[in-house]
Write the structure tokens for this entry.
Amino acid sequence: MINILNIFSKIENCKYCIVKLSDTFPSYRKGDDIDIFCYSVDDIVSSLLIIGNNYINSGYNIKIKSIIKKEHVHVDFIIYNEIDIRFDIYGTLPEYNKIMIKPALFESIIENSIQVAYTTEYGPVIVKIPSVIDDMLIRYFEFVQWYDVRPDKIKHLSYIVDSLSESNRRQFFEKLHHYTKLPNTYYQEKNKISILCSLSNFIKKIFK
């Protein structure tokens, strides 16, 4: 399997942030993906290719797919014709059509990221992840966007409820209010009631 910590040791000088970090990180299951917010998609992709060359002799292929040019790229490490691990790299916020998010939040997430040290046999490796508040915001956006078609996204709501405390609850809602609003589109008008009901249930669950 790919040595994930070795990869992140090579990009520790880059401005990036891993979002929605798995509880099992740096371990992963075949087909998993790692979502990365960064200022320079090209720099991260180039670093992954340099490191990935070490795995070519082990039977890996590396496939790069541009989803949105210079803003969203997939780097797939493939073995036996199946994706082993995908690096999902964003140079801007993902597109959400059920909630409007100010672009400045992307920079805020990266600049306010925190560093976590993982111990390896070669020494500590620093990995950058979102602050607790930003992590909850990102998961909330995922929940709002997909809750009606992806029941599994309820995991993000459960995570938020478990992570909120008396000390950070106000900060979470203040930042959510500052950076977001519901879009004024025909689609949104048709679905605003269901989204507001979802938000209401979400708030009730938090304060229960």
User: Anything to note?
Assistant: The chain has seven helices and nine strands. The two ends are 43 Å apart (CA to CA). The beta strands are 16-19, 32-38, 61-68, 72-79, 82-90, 100-101, 114-120, 123-129, 180-181. The first strand starts at residue 16 and ends at 19.
